[in-house]
Amino acid sequence: MRKWRLLGALGVVVAGGVYGGSPYFAASNLRETAAKGDADALDELVDFPSVRESLKAQMNAAMMAKMQSDPEMANNPFAGLGMMLAPAIIERAVDAYVTPEGMAAIVRGKKPAEASEAEVANKEPDYKSEWVDLDTFRVTPVGQETNDPMPSFIFKRQGFASWELTKIEFPENFLGSG
């Protein structure tokens, strides 16, 4: 009887370890896969349509806020045209950047336009990880050379111990600066 209790307790500890450790493993797996540029493996780790849609929404909101708060745009007769064209431009830009190569740059803490092979392979940033809730996990690269805010990678649970990247939350000035 005692043997079965011990085995049961051990099973609970192992299951808890797998449950609690699985998002860390998923984040590490994403970093390694993105660094290799393995498109097939990235497709299994990243929900690309979900990531693209979240980025489009973030970028559209940021663009509209910038256009509405810019005093020069208030007096510009072409501002309305710009606001109408912005979503189409953003959609194309996001579709171009949310690729295995762009993802490799983002995971390495670079902007997608900085995705040159030599530069991406240079440095591995440090990462800060946190649980948002039981089914959501956030990983944020910590800039080594600057204190610039970095994008956060949001993972969602897909079963007991399986995770998928579903969203990248960019700081307001990450893609628009430089």
From TrEMBL:
Pfam families linked to this entry: DUF2939
Name of protein: DUF2939 domain-containing protein
InterPro entries: DUF2939 (IPR021330)
